[in-house]
Write a structure and sequence with these properties.
The structure is a homodimer of 406-residue chains. The first copy, chain A, is built from 14 helices and 15 strands. Chain A is α/β, with parallel strands linked by helices and 406 residues long.
Chain lengths: 406, 406
DNA sequence: GTAATATGTCTCTTCTTTGGACAATATCCC
DNA sequence: GGGATATTGTCCAAAGAAGAGACATATTAC
């Protein structure tokens, strides 16, 4: 039961029905391919005649293509199978991180076309844009003959306003209220979409093409330098009134806890970020000003995990502790928005087998019902590049999205 | 950008466009009444001809009525004004609380028709249903001549599953997984809608008819024995996968804090519930098992507030403390879902002038941006009966809701 | 009184789903 | 091999709905 917004409603025009059904057909082709017109008619509960019109429209636009007539199975005329056409269009995904910036090109379904390239991030906006557009232009030039670029999706570790294309605040980059979209867009002459990396990761999971069982309500928790969270409600990214929705990283576990980079104390992030885990291992107060030892400065979570695997009890304890705090925070997410599934990303997932029990025990401690405590948790490894896949989805997904209506 | 659910999509049928525009017209009549057909055509950006058809449909169904031709202002034929017809239909709202159960009848816009009646709550389900249906039948009999009852909305202090009509867990009533809807519905032969009271309060604000500026994203925080929260996203109540979404009352402020009724420790509820505030005043550990003094047992928040107003420094300090914790928790809500507006209900609102500064200061401490810290907060006094208004909205609102599409 | 103007209804056109017919296959079974 | 049966995709007429504009009605300006 949704209330119609008396200021921002959308009237049903003459084309609206067609638009809706067209997108449904496209979605079903996407999730069920290979699929015939007759199959679609059965799935949609309409006549084959309408489906034919819809399909011909999609064919004319080049969004889908007809494959060879497939094996029907029973008797009767064999069906012509339909597929999403992922050859002529592609998108470029960009992941800007504090130290390096990563690029990838994918088709509309998120399948990578070329390997991931990267370069060192220069935090001066002008230089970064210049470096970036050079790389992008090179990719575009390479593909000019076969396909056209639909746009560039850029994810940033910080708060963003996708509408204006501004990065509101990215602490690790030292950016505050900078317009990233417009200068980049003019430099490369392509549409640019900006988004926070946590949300983009969530987006990547929503649109993950393999997932037949669509989960319209999910949360993605990305644990690395900070904790980024993306929430999806009703198949739509939750952005909130000020573009800060989903910042569970700064919901407290203990208001008297350690100081967080955001200025407040006891944020979840201050307990489970990579730095927090490492500090715990070194028995160091993360707020301390005194310089780190050489070992500490270069020591990574990967190192910690391998030590834990090799029998370092202190390392294992530090991981378990992080696992526990992770679970406590996940319980907050469940109690707050109760998503159908939780995804965890970040370096810590490499140690998931070690910490899963701690996570689940902590979750059960605070979840309000048994069923909620058993909310499915899936890890997304660093190698799956959820941020880049999310960046790609920023550009590719709108072609498949539901039209705004009512 | 919303993903279409490949399992639960809704095709656009021949009637769909009409349905959508009909509901938009109805919404606009609701929010802009008195309004003419020509006004609607301008608001909707369509021809007057289409509006006429939609309006005639709504007239035939008795949802709206034509008033006297109004003053146009300029020259030309005078418009015939349209209004929501709130005479022929009404709904019954029920608020079941631990000690008393309240009833009210309202029209479709939520305007009370008869005064609020109440009776002592008997926690034995059968007896309560019997008592309740007696009262309901009496109201129905009183109105039989003039109007028909559309249904009964029931709100409960606990977790509910509106679909099945079951109360999953209501600690203060001692109910666990009881079917409230079906037996009540058969007893009174009317449709029954069950909902958690926090969510219902949020619903009441969404559908508050005065509010021209529709806020599609809001949170309602109801502070009393416990802390109930209702979240609205995109004009729709957030229920979550297990019907526990919005339970911010059990998101921690400090995991090492006082024990909460839910079994966990340091929940927001354990800091700001009425009991927590009173315990703070009496310098008593709320988890203590030792019996309360006679004074403490009968002392209420209202008493505390009046003492604070009369110069009791300890009372004022206890309230300020609650205000601070309230603000810290509100910051969590803002960081998590970033609603456009926060509503606060409960007895504590009577002391809002005393604690507002504490609330806002605490909120500013933890909010991630200045803009977010300035999220509008509105109080809803106990006299406005938000729970009952929400219960009414459960039944009345579907008539105005947007149709499910795509 | 006449011109100007706004409202509400009506008609015709265009777009879209609905229902059914039909040709084009392909298999089953005798 | 041939007829019966079944399935796919297309086509056509019907009906629902928005778009565009004409027209009668009602009211004020001058």
């Amino acid at each position: 039961m949704r209330k119609i917004d008396p200021k921002r409603f959308k009237i049903a025009k003459r084309h609206t029905s067609r638009e809706i059904n067209r997108q449904i057909a496209l979605t079903l082709i996407r999730t069920h391919q290979p699929v015939s017109r007759a199959d679609l008619a059965r799935l949609m509960g309409t006549r084959r005649g309408v489906v034919s019109i819809l399909v011909n429209e999609l064919l004319a636009e080049g969004l889908i293509f007809e494959g060879a007539t497939g094996e029907g199975g029973g008797r009767g005329r064999k069906p012509t199978f339909l597929y999403i056409d992922s050859r002529e269009r592609y998108v470029i995904a960009v992941d800007i991180r504090a130290t390096r910036t990563y690029l990838m090109a994918t088709d509309l379904l998120g399948k990578p076309l070329v390997g991931i390239t990267s370069f060192s991030t220069n935090r001066t906006l002008g230089i970064l844009i210049s470096n970036l557009s050079q790389k992008i232009r090179s990719i575009v030039a390479d593909h000019k003959a076969v396909a056209t670029c639909q746009g560039v999706g850029v994810v940033v570790p910080g708060m963003t306003d996708p509408k204006s294309g501004r990065v509101l605040h990215a602490p690790t980059l030292g950016w505050r209220n900078v317009n990233l979209k417009d200068p980049l867009s003019t430099a490369i002459d392509l549409p640019v979409h900006i988004e926070n990396s946590g949300r983009a990761c969530a987006l990547a999971q929503v649109w993950a093409s393999r997932d037949h069982a669509h989960i319209g309500d999910l949360a993605f928790v990305s644990v690395s330098d900070g904790v980024g969270v993306g929430i999806v409600v009703n198949g739509e990214i939750l952005r909130g009134q000020h573009n800060i929705a989903g910042e569970f990283g700064h919901v407290p576990l203990s208001i008297d806890g350690p100081r967080c980079s955001c200025g407040a104390t006891g944020c979840w992030e201050a307990y489970v970020s990579n730095l927090a885990t490492l500090s715990r291992y070194f028995g160091r107060n993360p707020n301390e000003q005194k310089p780190m030892s050489a070992e500490m400065a270069t020591f990574t979570i990967e190192d910690l995990v391998s030590r834990a695997r090799n029998g370092d009890g202190k390392a294992l304890a530090a991981l378990h502790s992080t696992g526990r705090y992770l679970g406590l925070g996940l319980a907050s997410i469940i109690n707050a928005v109760d998503p159908g599934r939780l995804y965890i990303g970040g370096e810590i997932t490499a140690a998931w087998d070690l910490i899963e029990s701690s996570v689940k025990a902590a979750l059960a401690e605070r979840a309000l019902t048994d069923l909620a405590a058993r909310t499915e948790i899936r890890t997304v490894s660093v190698e799956e590049h959820p941020r880049l896949r999310g960046a790609a989805a920023l550009v590719a997904a709108p072609a498949f999205a539901a039209p705004m209506v009512a």
